[in-house]
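so im writing up the methods section and need the GCN5 family acetyltransferase record in one place, dumping it here so i stop losing it
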Amino acid sequence: MIVRSETHEDIAAIRIVQEVAFGQPDEAQLVDDLRAAGDAIFSLVAVDDGTVAGHILFSRMKAPFPALALAPVAVLPEYRQTGFASRLIRQGIARSEAAGWLGIFVLGDPAFYRRFGFDAGKASGFISPYAGPHLMALPLGGNEFPADRGVIEHAPAFAKLG
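--- predicted struct ---
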């Protein structure tokens, strides 16, 4: 398995991965909408023997410091429990840090995302429609964010998810 940046040729396969992984088209549409709006900062695919088996997207968000939203993360069912999602997330975190971003926010299962350093406590001071125990944050380039409170806003495409 390799993890690499998506190419234009991957777009149809990414849509399939997202639809199959989530059992609906909403997350695939989110990816398309983020790309179309110019809010997708980078997108990675996990490829196994020529098959796009996983996908992750990092998008622009408004925050008191340069921050990204991690969403969605998807892996085809037959590749789950194989480490594909973890590799995508770890490489995405490393790429975000190398590019100078200061934090990443994610909305998801705390038991899963804690292993990468995401913490609901670090997100608790931020005002967001997604605030709660499933909104987590990961500071990059150090142990703390430059600000521990304020308003954060995901790209407008997220509002369509309902």
